[in-house]
Write a sequence for this structure.
C-alpha cells in the first residue's frame, strides 16, 4: 500500500499512552516522521525505538504541555530536527471528574491547564512554522462528552467545550491561509484514561487503533470533524427533546461514574 503521508512531519502530544501512541504508530505507518511529545521519557523512547525498528522515523521529546517554556523548546527541537511541521495532533489530556457537590475551582483549573491551555499552547507554538509555509493541519482531540455532557464530568466537559469552540473559530480563520483544522470527538476508547469506568454492555469501549485509523483518514481527506464511534442519534435526540435525552442517558447507564462513586453520593 502507498504511504500517503510520506515526507510529512507530524507532532503528536500525549504520545506515551492510549490514543496518542496508537496515532503515532498509524502516522508512521503512512510514512510520516513523527515527533512524540509527553512527560514519560521511557515510554516515548520505547515507542520511538519500535517505530524505527519498522523503518520509520520518530523523535521523542519530553515536555509538559502546561509549561510555556517547555512547549517552546519542544517546537524548536522538532524544527531543528526536521525543518518543518505539517501536522500537529493536540491530543494530551486528563480526565478530571467531580460531582457538582464536591467540585472545586482547582478541579476546573487542573482540567483547563492540560485539556484547554495545553492544547492551545501547542497549537500556537507550531502555528508560525505552518503559516510560513502557508500549509499545515491542526487536529484537536475533543470528546463526545461535549455533544452529550454527562455527570460527573463537569471539569472535563467545560475544558473540552472551550477547546472545541476555539478550534471552530481557528478552522475558519486559518483555512484562507492554507491551514486546516480537524476536531475529533471520540466516544469511550479503551485506554488507561477511563480504565476506572464501569461500562454498560450497550456502550462497549472502542479500540484506540481503530480510532487512530479514522483520524489518519480524516487528516488525509481534510475532514473538519470526526465523530467516532458514531453516536449522532443521541446528540440529535438530546438537542430536540432534552428531557427524553437525559432520561435515556440515565436509563441506559451511559453516565461516566467511576465504579462505586454513585453509591457513595446517594
Ligand atoms: N479514552 C477515551 O475514552 C477518550 C474519549 C474522548 C476523548 N479522549 C481524549 O483523548 C486524548 C488521549 O486520551 P487517552 O484516552 O489516550 O488517555 P491516556 O492513555 O491517559 O493518555 C493521555 C496522554 O496525555 C499525556 N499528558 C497528560 N498530561 C500531560 C501533560 N501535562 N503534558 C504532556 N502530556 C500530558 C500523557 O502522557 P504523560 O503522562 O507521559 O505526560 C498521555 O500520553 C485526551 O485528550 C482525552 O481527553 C479520550
Amino acid at each position: 500500500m502507498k504511504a500517503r503521508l510520506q515526507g510529512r512531519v507530524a507532532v503528536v502530544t500525549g504520545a506515551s499512552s492510549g490514543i496518542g501512541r496508537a496515532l503515532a504508530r498509524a502516522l508512521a505507518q503512512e510514512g510520516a516522521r513523527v515527533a512524540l511529545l509527553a512527560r514519560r521519557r521511557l515510554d516515548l523512547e520505547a515507542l520511538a525505538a519500535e517505530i524505527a525498528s519498522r523503518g520509520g522515523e520518530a523523535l521523542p521529546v519530553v515536555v509538559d504541555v502546561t509549561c510555556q517554556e517547555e512547549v517552546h523548546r519542544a517546537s524548536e527541537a522538532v524544527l531543528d530536527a526536521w525543518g518543518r511541521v505539517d501536522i500537529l495532533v493536540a491530543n494530551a489530556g486528563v480526565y478530571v471528574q467531580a460531582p457538582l457537590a464536591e467540585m472545586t475551582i482547582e478541579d476546573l483549573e487542573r482540567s483547563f491547564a492540560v485539556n484547554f491551555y495545553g492544547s492551545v499552547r501547542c497549537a500556537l507554538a507550531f502555528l508560525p512554522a505552518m503559516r510560513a509555509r502557508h500549509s499545515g493541519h491542526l487536529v484537536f482531540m475533543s470528546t463526545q462528552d461535549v455533544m452529550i455532557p454527562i455527570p460527573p464530568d463537569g471539569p472535563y466537559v467545560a475544558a473540552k467545550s472551550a477547546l472545541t469552540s476555539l478550534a471552530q473559530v481557528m478552522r475558519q480563520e486559518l483555512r484562507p491561509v492554507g491551514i486546516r483544522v480537524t476536531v475529533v470527538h471520540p466516544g469511550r476508547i479503551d485506554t488507561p484514561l477511563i480504565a476506572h469506568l464501569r461500562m454498560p454492555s450497550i456502550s462497549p469501549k472502542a479500540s484506540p487503533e481503530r480510532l487512530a485509523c479514522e483520524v489518519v483518514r480524516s487528516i488525509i481527506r481534510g475532514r473538519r470533524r470526526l465523530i467516532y464511534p458514531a453516536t449522532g442519534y443521541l446528540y440529535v435526540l438530546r438537542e430536540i427533546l432534552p428531557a427524553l435525552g437525559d432520561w435515556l442517558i440515565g436509563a441506559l447507564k451511559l453516565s461516566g461514574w467511576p465504579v462505586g462513586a454513585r453509591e457513595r453520593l446517594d
Observations:
- The chain has nine helices and seven strands.
- The CA atoms of residues 108 and 172 lie 28 Å apart.
- The chain has a mean pLDDT of 93.
- Residues 9-265 form a domain with the Rossmann fold fold (CATH 3.40.50.720).
